[in-house]
Design brief:
Layout lengths: L31 E13 L2 E12 L3 E3 L4 E3 L2 E13 L5 E10 L24 H9 L6 H23 L29 H16 L1
Antiparallel strand pairs: 1-2, 2-5, 3-4, 5-6
Helix pairs in contact: 1-2
Length: 209
């Protein structure tokens, strides 16, 4: 664990706000909550089902300018997206969205736009490609936000499927595209030791085959 220090090098005393130890900002009345939950399911040896939910909730009566009226506390958005992802290519082969709770009925007009992401591969550049297909008036900002998070979670789902201990004690063959990792973050920078190790391992595996 990294120690927090003041500017003079003396260990700082953690500030506490409310009942949350380590919260450095003042906390008052909670007014909104957004929850994004993503689950990945192994369908078979070559595909995952990635299921995501985005839920927005307000905790007081609030005025909706788009409807010109006050509404009671409760859910504002409840959006689910399901997408089937092929392994190891990480290509989205099926996708659908369900807007279970929305503030304006017209939002349903872009519910089917989730189908536009079919064919996208989850790899570096996925965010750009997603915005090209669902950005602006082509889609729903909240649904696009959810799908973006689902992409990152799908990669974790892939690793879970590959590393899962199988009957007999083994794992799946690590047959994946290193491009998923390349320059995706500091750890997996192209000139770093970890990415170099991955490339080396794949080269050795290719020789064995």
């Amino acid at each position: 664990m990294l120690a927090v220090t003041d500017t003079d090098g003396v260990p700082a005393t953690p500030r506490v706000s409310g009942n949350r130890p380590g919260c450095f900002l003042q906390k008052k009345e909670r007014i909104h909550s957004r929850t994004i939950t993503v689950n990945s399911y192994e369908i078979d040896d070559s595909s995952l089902l990635v299921e995501g939910d985005l839920v927005d909730e307000r905790f007081f009566p609030s005025f909706y300018y788009s409807r010109n009226e006050f509404l009671d506390p409760g859910l504002v958005h409840d959006i689910r997206v399901e997408m089937k992802v092929s392994l190891p290519a990480m290509e989205i082969t099926e996708a659908r969205a369900t807007m279970r709770k929305i503030p304006i009925e017209e939002c349903l007009g872009v519910e089917s736009s989730a189908g536009k992401i079919v064919g996208l591969r989850i790899k570096p550049g996925f965010t750009r490609d997603l915005k090209e297909r669902l950005g602006g008036t082509a889609g729903c900002l909240h649904m696009t936000t959810l799908i973006h998070q689902m992409g990152a979670a799908a990669v974790q789902g892939m690793w879970a499927a590959l590393s899962r201990k199988r009957e007999g004690g083994g794992t799946k063959s690590l047959d994946y595209d290193p491009g998923i990792l390349k320059n995706s973050c500091w750890l997996w920078r192209e000139d770093g030791p970890f990415f170099e190790k991955v490339i080396k391992q794949r080269g050795e595996r290719g020789k064995e085959e």
